[in-house]
Design brief:
The protein has 356 residues and is an alpha/beta fold. It has two domains: 122 residues, Aspartate Aminotransferase, domain 1; 206 residues, Aspartate Aminotransferase, domain 2. It is built from 15 helices and 13 strands. The strands form three sheets. It has a seven-stranded mixed beta sheet with strand order 2-8-7-6-5-3-4, sandwiched between helices. The protein has a four-stranded antiparallel beta sheet with strand order 9-10-13-12, with helices on one face. Helix 3 runs antiparallel to helix 12, helix 4 runs parallel beside helix 12 and helix 5 packs across helix 6. The N and C termini lie far apart (61 Å).
Length: 356
Amino acid sequence: MSQVNLMNLVRDKVKALKAYHVETIDAEIKLHANENPYPPPPELFNRLQESLKSFQLNRYPDPDSQVLKETIAEINRVPAESIVIGNGSDELIQLILQIFCDEGDAFAFPDPTFAMYAIIGKGLGLNPHPFPLNDSWDFKGEAFLAFLAEKNARVVFFSYPNNPTGNCYSANEIKKVIEGFQGIVVLDEAYFDFARKTFIDDIKKHNNLILLRSLSKIGLAALRVGFGIADPAIMEQINKVRLPYNSNTISQAFAAQVLRDFSPVKKQIDIILTERERLAKALSALPNLTVFPSDSNFILFRVEQEGEKVFENLMKNGILIRNLNAHPRLKNCLRVTVGTREENDQFLAQLVKIKG
């Protein structure tokens, strides 16, 4: 029986990583993961159940996800060859960095933002460079371009709206970066359905622009469906390194069904947006609490002190939200996903008790 020192075999850059932390705590009310609190509408779910009878589960899925790609292409008025399907948008982030960066190359993003950009990049042996956002969680395009040039960055990521701050950056400042940067610009529009702001029309003008979207936030988180839109020349390169059969048959079929008959999901999104405004207003009325504007399905807020204690007390009362206190710019900050009206009411009631 061999006893190898496994840690001697692990790459140093991987040893230095910290895994992306996902809370798996069993809580009565989960408002931590930016999920749609509502299950798929019955009419759509019933169709999926009917479709299951026709699936050949002993056969591999369509390696090109052609039906889903054509559905997305028609809805977004782009050519199907401009689209790639991912196992969530996380996979596409990894593929983009894999294609455009060699080990040791630099890439950049505003900070704070989605942690997976840095985690994936470090895992590939790349050098991530965070650009500090201002107090309004925004930036100036000229300063960002200078930063990209200084770091010799090859790729820049923008989460739009930004997770965890919730806001959309200034469109004019982003356009300055798109027009002035000679590398790849990735607009991660995972929360597009809540912000309803997009750079999709800029794809035709700029061949270095990639848009990412996700179906996880609108109710299909378990199916792991993401997609990218870009110049076909970029997609040709992505398909060289994309693993075959990266999207399964059920995910492809149900995602296409949902997108073709989107009105039931849109009704859920409209309810979430109404609840977002109600929740933000209620939070803003609480003393010693700062609420940041949101274009997403979550709200970032800062308590005056002891954010950790607020988080723990909520958890003790069966309510799980996201504690962001570890980031130096997010001290005493918490992020709450917009839930159902009943869930939001229970969250608010417990928060009022905690804050006394």
